[in-house]
Automatic annotation (TrEMBL):
Gene name per UniProt: Lphn2_1
UniProt protein name: Latrophilin-2
Species in which this protein is naturally found: Lygus hesperus (Western plant bug)
Domain of life: Eukaryota
Any Pfam family hit: DM9
InterPro entries xrefs: DM9_repeat (IPR006616), Lectin_gal-bd_sf (IPR043159)
Length: 208
């Protein structure tokens, strides 16, 4: 669906589905976005990340502001490069897609976004690119070496489980290529690769 951005009380809300609407609320003295769907069911406004299962919304602190572009936007010159393909050397971009209520960091190869979930490899032609605020991403994002699910405070949250737990963008070298996947806190990096899910303890994590 259409993606639009608005900031409410210092909280960035990324609207991804016209079927829901935001209401400004307050959580522990701070403004946040309270999401109410068309049926009038309220979700807890105290989550930094709200469930995507039906509403296709995310609300994140403004310091985690990220810019995205839809998969149909081939004109973008500021898509963040995450790695490269082992066979062709072709650049792979950082992306995000939705599957079964999960919001998944992935790598964009051609017109598809490659991800992994629950031990399975997946592909989706509907996704968004992560964009930098500049023509080059070096001033916006850096990659830090980490291991064992370590997530530094500056890591970029770019996904979540269908229960609202955050995932982060990571990458690692596999067979001569460099591939993007999701960092699960306390575990490590999971990457979709050649019809399989690959788990890596050592990885680089994207930070701002």
């Amino acid at each position: 669906g259409q993606v639009s951005l608005f900031v409410a009380g210092g909280i960035l809300c990324i609207r991804c589905d016209g079927g829901a609407f935001p209401i400004l609320s307050s959580c522990q003295g701070k403004h946040s976005c309270r999401i109410i769907n068309g049926w009038g069911t309220a979700h807890n406004p105290c989550y930094n990340w709200l469930k995507f299962t039906e509403l296709r919304y995310e609300c994140v602190p403004e310091r985690y502001l990220v810019r995205t572009a839809p998969s149909t936007d081939w004109s973008s010159t500021s898509r963040v490069i995450g790695g490269y393909d082992e066979l062709t050397g072709r650049e792979l971009y950082v992306g995000r897609t939705v599957h079964d209520g999960n919001v998944l960091p992935c790598y964009v190869k051609g017109d598809e976004c490659i991800y992994s979930l629950n031990g399975q490899y997946g592909r989706n032609s509907t996704f968004v690119y992560l964009k930098s605020n500049n023509l080059g991403y070096d001033e916006d994002y850096k990659w830090l070496l980490k291991r064992g699910g370590d997530v530094p405070p500056a890591a970029v949250p770019f996904g979540q489980t269908n229960l609202g737990k955050p995932w982060f963008v990571g990458r690692a070298a596999i067979n001569g290529g460099l591939y993007v996947g999701k960092v699960v806190p306390g575990e490590g990096l999971y990457v979709g690769y050649k019809d399989f899910e690959v788990f890596l303890k050592d990885y680089e994590i994207l930070v701002q």
